[in-house]
Amino acid sequence: MIGTERVIYQDGNHFNILLEDFGHGEMVQANVHMIIDNGEGIILDPGGHKVFKHLLTEVGSLIGLNNLKYIFLSHQDPDIVAAINGWLMTTNATAIAPKLWLRFIPHFGVDRFVIHRIKGIKDTGGTIKLGKNKLYIIPAHFIHSPGNFQIYDPVSKTLYSGDLGVSLGQDYMYVKDFDRHIKYMEVFHRRYIPCNKVLKTWVKMVRKLDIETIAPQHGAIMKGKDIVNRFLDWIEDLECGLDIMEPIYEINDKELEL
């Protein structure tokens, strides 16, 4: 059974669920989200081999594996894509991924009998139908991958932001105090996002959406318009990547300390 705290949204036949966190040990913590509408499901960024069999069982218990319609791969990182062959071999779902990365994903060992079920998303994004409603696949290029997408669900008003809004090291599932939460986000965003320009461009786009919840791929979920807007204001002006790292581009002749 899914705990109530893991049900981000529920209304009739529409569910937004944060699946159980099966990643432990040396792996970076990762959230795996699922959207269900009228009996059809999509799983977002399902991760690697160690969590695959546990997630497969959980998805099967929630909707039945035959009702998994899509597997969304926001970009090419192993915490997103590594177990894709297993998902394609054990379900009939269609995987959707940035077209930019289609020739790289097979390096994770995708069987030739299922490779045709990985479909490319053009840079401009678009919509897909799930159940009786549609989901928006929105561009998030260079956040942090050069080919990257996010999902916006207009029913629950949830933005699945991938590697934007990530927090590391907090011990709570939902953000209550945004000011306190900044310290768990700051290091990641300053290092993994290339520059502030892309953040300003992204914020300008998503302010057009009606967002109640931002659900990232790592860390705590931001729920409520006040916290969502606080995040947008914060990220819009954040200096990161090349804004602050130019002095690192120097030749260093010191021996590495391994």
Distance between the termini: 45 Å
Shape: globular
Helix percent band: 25-40%
Query: Poorly predicted ranges (pLDDT <50, ≥5 residues)?
Result: none
How is the main sheet built?
7 strands, mixed
CATH architecture annotation:
4-Layer Sandwich
| Secondary-structure-derived class | alpha/beta
Find the count of extended strands (DSSP E, 2+ residues): 13
Radius of gyration, rounded?
Answer: 18 Å
- Strand order, biggest sheet? 1-2-3-4-5-6-7
What percent of residues are in strands?
15-25%
Q: Provide the number of structural domains.
A: 1
Tell me about this structure.
The chain has one domain: Ribonuclease Z/Hydroxyacylglutathione hydrolase-like (Metallo-beta-lactamase, Chain A, 4-Layer Sandwich), CATH 3.60.15. Helix 5 runs antiparallel to helix 6. The strands form 2 sheets. Strands 1-2-3-4-5-6-7 form a 7-stranded mixed β-sheet, with helices on one face. It has a 6-stranded mixed β-sheet with strand order 8-9-10-11-12-13, covered by helices on one side. The model has no long low-confidence stretch (mean pLDDT 94). The chain has 7 helices and 13 strands. It is an alpha/beta fold and 258 residues long.
